[in-house]
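agent: user wants the structure for Diphosphomevalonate decarboxylase from Dissophora globulifera. delegating to structure tool.
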Amino acid sequence: MTVFEATCTAPVNIAVVKYWGKRDTSLILPTNSSLSVTLSQDQLHSKTTIRASADFTSDRLWLNGIEESIEKNKRLVACLRETRALRRTQIEDKDPSAPKISNLAIHICSENNFPTAAGLASSASGYACLVYTLSKLFELPLDASDLSIVARQGSGSACRSLFGGFVAWEMGTKEDGSDSKAVQIAPETHWPDLQAMICVVSDEKKGTSSTEGMQLTVKTSALLQHRIKEVVPKRMEDMIAAIHNKDFPKFAELTMQDSNQFHAVCLDTYPPIFYMNDISRAIIRIITEYNKDGVKAAYTFDAGPNAVIYAPKDNMAEIYAILSHYFPNAAFDDSMGLLKETALPSLP
Ligand code: PMV
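agent: tool returned. relaying tokens verbatim.
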């Protein structure tokens, strides 16, 4: 029996202008555009293998070695439905000799080389990897922006992991979501001097999922309305200019301001959502102190307590030394470029 198989990896992306809020929860259409940096595949990535075979009786999924239900996961079902429909319309309907892979059941096996759902963007790399691997399995003649429209329906931030380098997710205006897609602002080769360090403050699963959290924010936060109307449009323009000009101080200032406003919007949600903890706030204070005489590093935090520090390559050793000084129990795992910290530090 013929088995069709594809394996791909996809990297994590960390936003510097955050996506927070949906205007359409089933199509996953955002309330603002966002922008991220895709990390190197050597750092954090998902790896997915998908097989299709007439021997399989149903679609099945294994996540980090444990079987999970597909039917309960509406978003995964949407990605499968969309890619199968594309296989039919783009290939099987046009070429009667093409194998009818869209009718076969599939088995999906996906792994992350980092903690899942700890605010380290596992859903971004996971869904980007799923959709990209399906596109290879089905041999879809689509570019990364087209695929981003499908990946977006798995997890919003996933659409940005279809590209390397610096990536914008344009919110779009159409009701069907056909213009809500990712575009590359600059390739990974554009700014090789910019590096990211991931500080794992906690690898536990986060308390409030981004889905729950952002809908509560949309319903209750007045600050979010100010952010999406008055702040993000200009910040997107300024961030794109800072990236094109490789202007690190401007890039860093905008990144930190945007992280701060995202967490302020979480605090303005009712009841409030706290993603950062005391260690996260200590990291903010350390970086702020380090930047006193000129901006040399930027912190950013997603929906969890872990920090990502962006800095020029030459500053990284110094930043690592400073963080190790304040967090003496931190372990540094060279293979993944992760700084792991569990003990509560004394504040600087
Ligand atoms: O794609 P989601 O539902 O995991 O949301 C991600 C939201 C943030 O990570 C906090 C911000 C972003 O733009 O990635």
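agent: one observation worth passing along. The pocket of PMV is lined by residues 15, 18-20, 34, 121, 123, 155-157, 210-211, 302-303 (CB under 6 Å).
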